[in-house]
Specification:
With about 180 residues, the chain is α+β, with helices and mostly antiparallel strands. Helix content is about 35%, strand content about 25%. The chain is built from six helices and eight strands, in the order E-H-E-H-E-H-E-E-E-H-E-E-H-H. Strands 7-6-1-3-2-8 form a six-stranded mixed β-sheet, with helices on one face. The protein has a two-stranded antiparallel sheet with strand order 4-5. A hairpin with a 2-residue loop joins strand 4 and strand 5. The longest helix is centred in the C-terminal third of the chain and has 17 residues.
């Protein structure tokens, strides 16, 4: 894992984004968590869901750049959620569900800006995805890790996550494990 890289993105509920990237070739690990807030200390799920901490639900993706490029990760991200809705993904509403790319260095920032610009032509509405430098990543509680795999019969998983996975499998077939 010494040559692996890290990407941090948020596009609505972290359970959805985690489930998508678990199927992507070159992705080694995914950790659900929180970033971008201004409340002191490590936030809890309940605090983040209140919308008062300023944190977004995000996933931190460890990937092998020899098998998948950072730009490809961002394209998959941008096409498996709606980057045109401000602080909302479907029925999930609030700043904690914002579309965001947290870059780890200047190269990632350049790539993120370019991908967002390129993706704009595929959407009718303007892209509102935030591109910000990663400050701190807080790992979410254990019950939020591997959520879809552990809870596939849950209604949210069936009605929200499964269709996202079907879309992923249709448009990114060549990038899957």
């Amino acid at each position: 894992m010494a040559n692996n890289s890290t990407a941090t993105v948020g596009g609505g509920c972290f359970w959805c984004v985690e489930a998508v990237f678990q199927e992507v070739k070159g992705v080694e690990t995914i950790v659900s968590g929180y970033s971008g807030g201004n409340a002191p200390g490590k936030p809890t799920y309940r605090e983040v869901c209140s919308g008062l901490t300023g944190h977004a639900e995000v996933v931190q993706i460890t990937y092998n750049p020899e098998h998948i490029a950072y730009a490809d990760i961002l394209v998959i991200f941008m096409t498996t959620h709606d980057p045109t809705t401000l602080n909302r993904q479907g029925a999930d509403v609030g700043s904690q569900y914002r579309s965001v790319i947290y870059y780890h260095d200047e190269d990632q920032k350049k790539i993120a800006d370019e991908v967002v610009k390129q993706m704009a032509q595929y959407y009718e509405d303007p892209i509102v995805t935030e591109v910000s430098q990663l400050d701190v990543f807080y790992e979410a509680e254990k019950e939020h890790q591997d959520y879809y795999r552990n809870n596939q019969s849950n209604g949210y998983c069936s009605f929200v996550i499964t269709p996202k996975l079907q879309k992923l499998r249709k448009i990114h077939r060549d990038k899957l494990k």
